[in-house]
Amino acid sequence: MRYMLMRKADAQTEEGVMPSEGMLQAMADYNERLIRAGVFVTGDGLRPSREGSRITFRDGEPVVTDGPFAETTELLAGYTVLEVASLDEAVAWAKQWPREDGNVTLELRRYMALEDFTPGAAIEHHRAHGRLPTDMNVHLAFPGTCREAMTFYAEVTGGHLEAMLTYGETPAAADVPAHWHDRIVHASLNLRGRRLMGADMDGDCYQAPQGAHVQLSYDEPEQAEAVFARLADGGTVSMPMGETFWARRFGMAADRYGVHWMIACWPEECGRSMEQEAS
Asked: For the whole model, what pTM was predicted?
């Protein structure tokens, strides 16, 4: 079940006071623990209410009121969405909120689930959306270079290499040659909750990747360019990184391990939806 952990606003956040370096580091460490535990869904800080608006409806007509808003303690300064098994688990994570944030108020609220509603046609319409998979990940095959490649990808992307399991550490050890016991049967690189997985494949089980690309998006052109350069180093560039009619930056390359990549920085006004038009 999902819970929203809300950090309530205070005088400082409403004044736009930015967090200190120590607070930023403490929050980054906290988020990393959430990610590694597999409970982090998303989270963001919010700008002061003076930069926002409130929309109320009167007889079906919207009325827009610009901020700031007076009731500071009822406003939000940020939020984190947790995927946990119970309220007790959510509370346990909330109690680990960085002490560097001072005297703050947090609030936990559980997301409503379809099971909370009375069955009916409208709920079944919503339930149809549940046919979507809970995850979509990418799995790569390597001819014995999985450890090296996945370590490299973790360095380039900043993702968390959460698994690196060898054949020798599993019951599969009895079915592979001894010199393959140190090869990787399962590797997992966590990228904001999505995973790039990999494994070494022997003999005919390995096929060089073709007809598919791993696609990464970045907010800033400089980020996209830097990642593309690292991945293309020692590989083959099929489309040089540059500005296109659909993206601020876009490039395609096969890296030194034969894995194909698309690196993009989409237009600010369109965001990642431009990916569909590019394809």
From this structure: 0.61
